[in-house]
Automatic annotation (TrEMBL):
Annotated source species: Christiangramia fulva
Stored InterPro entries: 23S_rRNA-intervening_sequence (IPR012657), 23S_rRNA_IVS_sf (IPR036583)
A Pfam family hit: 23S_rRNA_IVP
Protein name per UniProt: Four helix bundle protein
NCBIfam families linked to this entry: four helix bundle protein (TIGR02436)
Length: 119
């Protein structure tokens, strides 16, 4: 599962970067581009860091950052749709992946918190 999620988060970041690079070069486009690139690459990099955690507590802290950043990706992708900067077809797969990844990481944190509380 860990290898699969490393690949998924990396692919997700790449897709978000590609989507971001096709935004119009205006003030709004530039702002969203920076934000979506930052939060999507943070999902991938912090997930990798979470797996290097020395303790359950450090894993939980990193995975919490991953959850926040994945949720921020959802926000920006939904914003793109609301502002009609992209069609629903252009964003549906990436939005679905952002929501799935968020759900996976929330469940992972709950499992880790539960096992930490049993120790």
């Amino acid at each position: 599962m860990e290898r699969n999620l490393k690949v998924r988060t990396n692919d997700f970041a790449h897709k978000c970067v590609k989507l971001s690079l096709s935004l119009p070069p205006n003030t709004l486009g530039n702002h969203i581009r920076q934000q979506l690139i930052r939060c999507s690459t943070s999902v991938a990099s912090n997930y990798r860091a979470a797996n290097l955690g020395q303790t359950k507590r450090s894993f939980i802290a990193k995975i919490s950052i991953v959850i926040e950043e994945a949720d921020e990706c959802i926000f920006w992708i939904e914003f793109l749709l609301k502002e009609n900067l992209f069609s629903a077809d252009a964003c549906s797969d990436i939005l679905k992946e952002a929501k799935e990844l968020t759900s996976i990481f929330v469940a992972s944190r709950k499992t880790a918190e539960g096992s930490e509380n049993r120790n």
